[in-house]
Amino acid sequence: MLCFHHVGVQTDDLDNCLNWYLDYFDAKLSWQLERFSGLTLDRLPGIAGLIEVRVGDVRFHLFDRSAHNRQQPPAVGFQFQHVCLAVDSADELRELRRRWHELHESGKYVFARPDLPSDIVTDADGIQSLYVLDVNGLEFEFTYVPGSPRD
User: Fold this and answer.
1) Is residue 50 part of a domain?
2) pLDDT in tens, 64-74
3) Does an H or E element contain 23, and which?
């Protein structure tokens, strides 16, 4: 059986990214590494630091690479398009949208892309979704499915 463990987030500014994840997700720092295995060094040349932050059972592994080219992947290229996280209520969607705007307007963070969060949309089945970008330009979807218990 598969079980979700973490999302790896590569950044060009680890402090900016870490602080945004701590503030936006109300995450907690779990651990950090500065020494890596040969396999990690081969897979991620120039890795300088790796930090895990947690929100409940969701973990984000944030890491910086000295060789990062500071470019977004091409929009038409293969990539993970977004990560979807479920919330317990429609109110949480509104709060996540409000918090994104608050952090963006604070001027404390540098964002790779200027895109604002989407409106909260409701599909024909009543499922509500919100799309936001993190400071690196990576997309998150937050979804609320009425009447669906989360495990």
Assistant:
1) yes
2) 877 666 666 66
3) helix 14-24
pTM: 0.88
User: Can you tell me the distance from the alpha carbon of 149 to that of 151, in angstroms, rounded to the nearest whole number?
Assistant: 7
Look-up of token digits 């890596």: 36
Q: What is the dihedral of CA 116, 138, 7, 83, to 10 degrees?
A: 60
Distance (Å, rounded) from C-alpha 114 to C-alpha 101?
A: 12
Q: What percent of the chain has pLDDT over 90?
A: 73
The DSSP 8-state label assigned to residue 147 in this structure reads T
Give me the residues paired with residue 8 across strands: 61
- Say whether both 92 and 61 belong to one domain: no
Question: Is 109 part of any domain?
Answer: yes
Residue indicated by tokens 């929009």:
75
Number of domains making up the chain: 2
Separation of CA 17 from chain center: 9
